[in-house]
Design goal:
heterotrimer; A alpha/beta (323); B mainly alpha (257); C mainly alpha (259); A: 323 residues; alpha/beta; four-stranded antiparallel sheet; 13 strands; 30% strand; globular; C: 259 residues; mainly alpha
Chain lengths: 323, 257, 259
């Protein structure tokens, strides 16, 4: 993406909130200092734990919140001064808030949004055909929104956000609350959107998997600051190589099995119901680790679950590693 | 500008369709509100069974006042329902959605929600006018003018008090202002004396919402009619100004506790 | 049983006392309503040469001060909220406690009345002195306090008895609305019962609503009649029994038929 112009430039962006009242009044710095440059066509995951300042950042960049300090330009516009002009060119989706009218079919909201964005009737119809196909959601558009599952509703929300063909979309925790399959499907849609239409995707999440499956670049924030900004390839090599394998055991002493499993690239902890393995996949593959488990506790394995390292561990390792 | 008006019109239409999509409760709600209005009429008829007039207000005058109150507040709370919730929405961070569309935030918010509970009231008020007033086309026109001004003043005032929650983080003031307006506007302002009466012209402008228009319906005078329009313009302006100022301090629900 | 009731009521009192914002809001609204209604009634007495149904400007003002007090310190939407709890089955966890849910709820609400009553009474008395001077009878005003408490407890019991309808019918909002309107006119809230025309007056006197607002208000207006305490107590007992029986039947039905 070298050479393309930046679509988002944030320079020392800050936002403080006053909490409480009277004597218990205090100021909380939700965003302390945000420097960021995003180029057209990027898929950026803005990752951090709850309260890291992700939503506040996205709301400043879309013009919903005025900052308490710093500057930003989005598509060449100052978001909080030129919010309405900007909103014609960007799409926004907030995972926890619905844009759609619950009692009506989504298509009615799309017609309303079409009028708001000044699109003609034929234009909206054509666009809905495209989006119905892209999002595999054409049949959902005509059902009352309250009858849709959350995964289906999020696809309809995404259609609403894309109706006016924005070149840049902001998605705030779009996968929150979705089941695993719906989550994966939604991630694939975002990648398609980016690769086929060239739409720049700015996504916030506290789910490490969103880094791997959606983004080509990840910005990790904690406590109102960027603590790491790197390509996903680089991050994967450094940070995303840890997997957690939880093994349920029956009829054997977990401590004995744990002791037998020690080896390069795996750290083992006995738990009340089995063992936890932290596996560094650079050194030891999942297959090697599992083979070792079955060898160490033949006939005693009742359950196996493999997860990414939780975000807290990723953040902790960023703080540990020199950048 | 016309594109914006069209967008607002279409939003409002969708809000109506949304409100009417679930009709199960519609009839019981209409009956409820009609009962409510009938109780107020009964109250005034009971009062006037004991007195001939209250400081110049006779039965018919007060019932016309009540018709203006019911028609205008029914329209405001029914067709522009968010005006009632504005302060809570600002404090709770519910304006995000309105801030992502390329339409002016305040008008968009106002037309974004219709509440079925109140939609029968403008009709009820009109029926009251027909029943209790000696109706002429001129009177109907003055009534329509008075109701229109009453709507503008109420919207301006409710936006003004609701927007205070941008600055203080809570909406107690907004709710109190709303309740006070709805209450005082159902009495003739002359029932109050001294300071209270002045306050009802200036602070909670309920006198301009019902008493002044009701007097105009009784006997039209140009001066008060123009003054009414001026007051409406002032409150509309104050409302818009406070809202726009407040919006800069909007916190999107972050951290007011 | 008594310990449970007292503990719950005290918890309610502490809870209401710890929400100064809500108390200020209740007192503020009370002041506004009292201001409006008392001014209106003074205008009415004035237009009748200073007297209506035996009330002069001073006594009608003190009447309104106390009738609005009776109205303001009791949540008026308990029918709706309690009904919602029944319809949405939020009441179910309360069924497994060793006390009847309705008794606990009544005690809690009555406990919450006390701080509101204290806050609004101060506002009301100051308002009364500022506008019309001292009340017609000091002993009447003093007696109005226990009468207000009896009335508030009666109103809370009555609302719960009404709300029990939700065990059988799923829509209680209209019931609440009708109830509130009855209280307005027939409970002596908007208009003293003595001012109503003859037949309506008899109907109002026979209904429980008069025990909630009218009974304490007439005391404050200087009309002392111990008989009204008996009436209030009678309605309180009857309505509490009605609420308990209705909830017992309703919960039995709920347990039998599931949710």
């Amino acid at each position: 993406m070298e050479g393309t112009s930046p679509v988002i430039v944030a320079d020392g962006l800050q936002r403080a909130f006053t909490v409480g009242r009277g004597q218990r009044k205090e100021t909380i710095e939700a965003v302390r200092h945000l420097d960021l440059e995003v180029r057209a066509g990027e898929r950026l995951a803005f990752i951090g734990p709850n309260g890291a300042g992700k939503s506040t950042s996205i709301k400043m960049l879309t013009g919903i919140l005025h900052p308490t300090g710093g500057h930003a330009l989005v598509l060449g516009l100052v978001p909080w001064h030129e919010r309405r002009t900007l909103s014609r060119r960007i799409g926004t989706l907030f995972g926890q808030r619905s844009l759609l009218w619950s009692e009506l079919a989504a298509v009615e909201t799309y017609r309303m949004l079409g009028a708001i964005y000044g699109l003609g009737h034929a234009h909206v119809t054509r666009r809905l055909d495209e989006l119905g196909e892209l999002l595999d959601a054409a049949s959902l558009f005509h059902q009352p929104v309250r009858t849709l599952s959350l995964g289906q509703r999020m696809r309809c929300e995404l259609a609403a956000c894309l109706l006016h063909e924005p070149s840049l979309v902001f998605l705030d925790e779009p996968t929150i609350g979705l089941d695993l399959l719906a989550k994966q499907r939604f991630r694939e849609l975002l990648v398609t959107l980016n690769t086929e239409l060239g739409t720049t995707v700015f996504l916030t999440s506290h789910d490490v998997a969103d880094i791997e499956y959606v983004a080509d670049r990840a910005v990790i924030v904690n406590d109102g600051r960027v603590i790491r900004d790197a390509s996903v390839a680089a991050l994967r090599a450094e940070l995303l190589t840890n997997k957690r394998v939880r093994v349920g055991l029956a009829g054997v002493d977990p401590a004995v099995v744990a002791a037998a499993l020690t080896g390069p690239g795996r750290a083992t902890t006995p738990t009340s119901t089995g063992i936890d393995l932290a596996v560094d996949t650079d050194v030891c593959t999942i297959e090697t680790a599992l083979t070792a488990v079955f060898a160490a506790a033949p006939g005693a394995v009742v359950d196996v679950a493999i997860d990414d390292a939780p975000l807290e561990d990723v953040i902790a390792s960023i703080y540990r590693s020199p950048t | 500008m016309t594109a914006e008006v069209r967008a607002l019109w279409i939003t409002w239409r969708a809000a109506w369709r949304h409100a009417l999509a679930d009709r199960r409760a519609l009839w019981s709600q209409l009956v409820m509100m009609t009962t409510n209005d009938l109780v107020w009429i009964a109250f005034w008829l009971l009062v006037f069974s004991r007195v001939d007039e209250i400081r110049g207000w006779k039965t018919a005058d007060v019932l016309i006042l009540l018709a203006i109150a019911i028609t205008s507040s029914g329209f405001v709370l029914g067709a522009l329902h968010n005006v009632r919730r504005l302060g809570d929405m600002a404090a709770d961070g519910e304006l995000d959605e309105a801030l992502t569309v390329p339409v002016r935030t305040l008008p968009y918010l106002l037309v974004r929600r219709v509440e079925v509970l109140h939609i029968g009231e403008p009709l009820f008020g009109l029926v009251m006018l027909i029943v209790f007033a000696d109706l002429t086309p001129a009177r109907l026109a003055v009534f329509a003018y008075g109701v229109a001004m009453a709507i503008v003043i109420q919207v301006g005032f409710f936006v003004l008090v609701g927007s205070l929650s941008f600055f203080v983080g809570r909406n107690e003031g907004g709710n109190l202002g709303l309740q006070a307006m709805l209450l005082f506007s159902s009495y003739p302002v002359d029932a109050f004396g001294g300071v209270a009466k002045i306050l009802l012209y200036v602070v909670v402008p309920s006198a301009f919402v019902t008493s002044v228009p009701a007097r105009l319906v009784g006997s039209f005078e140009l001066g008060p009619a123009l003054a009414l329009a001026a007051v409406a313009a002032v409150f509309a302006g104050l409302g818009v100004l406070t809202f726009d100022r407040g919006l800069r301090r909007y916190t999107s629900g972050s951290t007011w506790t | 049983m008594i310990t449970q009731i007292v503990t719950t009521a005290m918890a309610g009192t502490r809870r209401a006392a710890r929400q100064p914002g809500a108390l200020v809001a209740v007192a503020g609204f009370y002041l506004v309503v009292t201001l409006a209604l008392s001014a209106m009634w003074r205008a009415v007495t004035e237009s009748r040469g200073g007297e209506i149904a035996g009330y002069d400007a001073t006594s009608i003002t003190w009447y309104i001060i106390v009738s609005e007090l009776a109205f303001s310190v009791v949540p008026q939407r308990l029918i709706e909220y309690t009904g919602d709890d029944v319809v949405n089955r939020r009441i179910v966890p309360e069924l497994i406690r060793p006390a009847r849910p309705v008794v606990i709820r009544l005690a809690h609400e009555v406990g919450m009345v006390l701080p509101r009553l204290a806050a609004c009474a101060v506002v009301g008395v100051v308002f009364g002195f500022a506008v019309v001077g001292p009340p017609p009878s000091w002993s009447g005003l003093t007696l109005a306090i226990p009468a207000l408490l009896l009335g508030a407890a009666g109103s809370i019991a009555a609302q719960h008895a009404f709300a029990a309808a939700s065990f059988w019918f799923h829509e209680t909002r209209s019931a609440w609305f009708l109830y509130q309107k009855l209280v307005f006119i027939l409970g002596g809230l908007l208009i003293p019962i003595d001012v109503l025309p003859g037949p309506l007056r008899s109907v109002a006197a026979a209904l429980p609503f008069a025990a909630f607002a009218y009974a304490p208000s007439r005391l404050a207006a200087g009309r002392i009649d111990p008989g009204w305490f008996v009436v209030q107590l009678g309605w309180l007992v009857a309505l509490t029994i009605a609420a308990v029986v209705a909830f017992d039947r309703g919960t039995a039905r709920l347990v039998r038929e599931g949710s």
